[in-house]
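Anyone up for a design puzzle?
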């Protein structure tokens, strides 16, 4: 996975010494703070500045603009699904400040819960990370980390309008910071109207091609095979409020409390879906010194889904509720210049849904323990080893996972090599589901005898970044990272045709199948010039062999790229400009409907005007060159052409 370039404060025009953060701190790859250059495995860092300048409205926008090989599409009922280098959303673990989210509706997190207000950075570790994070980290980890403002107080109000779907986003945040207390509060409200998608081919065009085929004349096969299954994007409204309160009780003891509420309505033609998310947690950290510390935490997360008719009545007595309780302990102990980490977790997972037989509920407990040893052999050579044991009560499954990572640093190059095993335990839905999918007479049936999915990930990386001159300054900074990887994925949980015993009700049964092998290369190149220009380019190539995953929802693509050209300049004391031209390219899928599946390129131009004392005006043109897909289906880019947006952000504390 490509590394991010160091965070740069480009508001400084001439002095390039203090404006460059050469060694940002990351935590996801090792559970303890490490500089990015010392992280045991390749970590992609999306900084606060990256978040601000790309005009991303949510986590989907942010990740697709920054990461090649990652694509969001639709699953059933237009719930968002993820494909990251061949792995679906149930194999990529999303965390908020290191904590899990309930949900797993359509095997994915509800990504609408992950807005970017008060986010300080995003860390992505690609490849198996189960030795530290357990199940669902078989394909990677995305950790969204809150920022902690150091100013005495801050207040921000912002609004944004997009012509696509007439989307309005309004938000506000407030923070205060004292010697003992730090509080971060944020609120966001979004409204999106329904969007009617143009039909790729009219009924008259299809009839004409059918007539040509019947008469033996040349005809257009793509018209007859038009697989458009999206005619309308549903409108929705969201409300999201979060609070994070930190109390520095003593120099050694810190307590962090957090809470949040999320509500979303998805407005269908005949009914509405209502989604609720509740989260709360308390974490205590006692540090004897900078290396020896103990963390204890409790986290609660609940995700509910209900279906309402236009008159306000519910379609089921109860619909869907997933509740998770997590207790976490981590102890870090220095051993000379080395470090030992011991950790344990307890997760209670409860799910009730009408999709279970007789509307029942099921629960399971996950108990784990893990250890990691950070061996600093020399200042240049570092080896990190991890082992973990997991037990799942519902399926009586046990799993041992391990990781071994080597980092070797030279002044001119850094080398990394990593092996990690991964697993994903079957979910409660995959074990116990029994329902008529879409009310179409097609039964989807769970299997309590499922085995966990397993993976083996090997990657080798080389990185080069320019050094600081003897004067302590830089003429500019550049970064080059090349990663080669292999994922061997086995016992994949999927479905096969299944005879239900009723001729009128065919179905599918969850089962384990042979897996796939994924080979790939990720390349990242970037340069920041001291006169305000920056360039970033990311490329990803992947190839799958074996039983290639195929569905209507997501298709692995062999080639993908993202790029960004930026320019920053302060013209006067009261006006500065950030201009960003970005784009992404996705090649044709490796398999699927070759007549309609297509590669595509989408560009975006964003201008951020920094006005007097904390007033920021954003203007953007998305899909700059008016790309339109041949047809609309679950994995096609959801655009009807060029769209425009304008936004205003006011830092009240700077006025």
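Challenge accepted. My sequence:
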């Amino acid at each position: 996975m490509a590394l991010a370039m160091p965070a740069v404060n480009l508001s400084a025009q001439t002095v390039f010494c203090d404006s460059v953060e050469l060694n940002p701190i990351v935590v996801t790859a090792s559970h303890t703070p490490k500089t990015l250059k010392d992280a045991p495995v390749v970590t992609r860092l999306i900084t606060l500045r990256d978040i601000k300048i790309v005009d991303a409205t949510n986590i989907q926008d942010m990740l697709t603009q920054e990461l090649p090989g990652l694509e969001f599409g639709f699953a059933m009922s237009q719930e968002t699904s993820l494909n990251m280098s061949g792995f679906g959303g149930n194999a990529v673990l999303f965390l908020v400040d290191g904590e899990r989210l309930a949900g797993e509706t359509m095997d994915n997190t509800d990504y609408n819960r992950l807005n970017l207000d008060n986010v300080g950075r995003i860390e992505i570790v690609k490849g198996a990370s189960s030795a530290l994070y357990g199940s669902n980290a078989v394909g990677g980890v995305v950790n969204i980390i809150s920022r902690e403002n150091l100013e005495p107080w801050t207040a921000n109000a912002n609004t944004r309008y997009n012509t696509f779907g007439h989307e309005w986003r309004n938000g506000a945040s407030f923070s205060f910071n004292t010697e003992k207390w730090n509080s971060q509060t944020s609120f966001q409200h979004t409204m999106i109207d329904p969007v009617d998608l143009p039909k790729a081919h009219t009924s008259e065009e299809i009839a004409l091609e059918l007539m040509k085929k019947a008469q033996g004349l040349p005809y257009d096969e793509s018209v007859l095979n038009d697989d458009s299954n999206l005619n309308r994007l549903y409108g929705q409204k969201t409300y999201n409020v979060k609070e994070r309160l930190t109390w520095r009780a003593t120099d050694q003891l810190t307590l962090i409390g957090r809470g949040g509420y999320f509500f979303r309505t998805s407005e269908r033609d005949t009914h509405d879906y209502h989604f609720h998310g509740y989260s709360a947690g308390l974490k205590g950290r006692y540090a004897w010194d900078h290396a020896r510390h103990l963390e204890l935490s409790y986290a609660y997360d609940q995700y509910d889904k209900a279906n309402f008719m236009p008159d306000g009545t519910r379609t089921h007595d109860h619909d869907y509720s997933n509740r998770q309780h997590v207790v976490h302990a981590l102890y870090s102990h220095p051993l000379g210049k080395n470090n030992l980490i011991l950790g344990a977790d307890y997760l209670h997972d409860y799910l009730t849904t009408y999709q279970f037989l007789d509307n029942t509920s099921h629960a399971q407990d996950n108990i784990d323990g893990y250890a990691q040893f950070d061996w600093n052999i020399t200042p240049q050579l570092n080896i990190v080893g991890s082992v973990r044991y997991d037990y799942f009560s519902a399926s009586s499954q046990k799993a041992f996972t391990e990781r071994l990572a080597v980092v070797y640093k030279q002044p001119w190059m850094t080398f990394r090599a990593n092996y990690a095993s991964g697993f994903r335990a079957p979910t409660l839905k995959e074990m116990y589901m029994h329902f008529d999918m879409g009310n179409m007479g097609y039964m989807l049936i769970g299997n309590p005898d499922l085995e966990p999915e397993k993976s083996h990930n090997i990657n080798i990386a080389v990185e080069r970044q320019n050094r600081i001159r003897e004067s302590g300054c830089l003429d500019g900074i550049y970064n080059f990272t090349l990663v080669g990887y292999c994922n061997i994925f086995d016992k994949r949980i999927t479905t096969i045709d299944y005879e239900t015993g009723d001729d009128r009700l065919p179905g599918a049964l969850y089962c384990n199948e042979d897996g796939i092998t994924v080979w790939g290369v990720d390349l990242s190149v970037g340069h920041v010039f001291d006169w305000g220009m920056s360039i970033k380019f990311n490329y990803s190539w992947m190839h799958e062999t074996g039983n290639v995953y195929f569905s209507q929802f997501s298709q692995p693509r062999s080639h993908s790229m993202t790029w960004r050209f930026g320019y920053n300049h302060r013209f006067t004391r009261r006006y500065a400009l950030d201009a960003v031209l970005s784009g992404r390219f996705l090649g044709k899928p490796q398999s699927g409907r070759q007549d309609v599946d297509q590669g595509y390129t989408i560009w975006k131009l964003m201008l951020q005007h920094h006005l007097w004392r904390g007033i920021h005006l954003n203007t953007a043109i998305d899909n700059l060159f008016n790309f339109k897909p041949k047809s609309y289906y679950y994995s096609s880019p959801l655009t009807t052409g060029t769209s425009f947006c304008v936004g205003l952000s006011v830092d009240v504390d700077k006025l």
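A detail worth pointing out: The helical segments are 48-53, 59-66, 130-133, 203-214, 221-224, 428-432.
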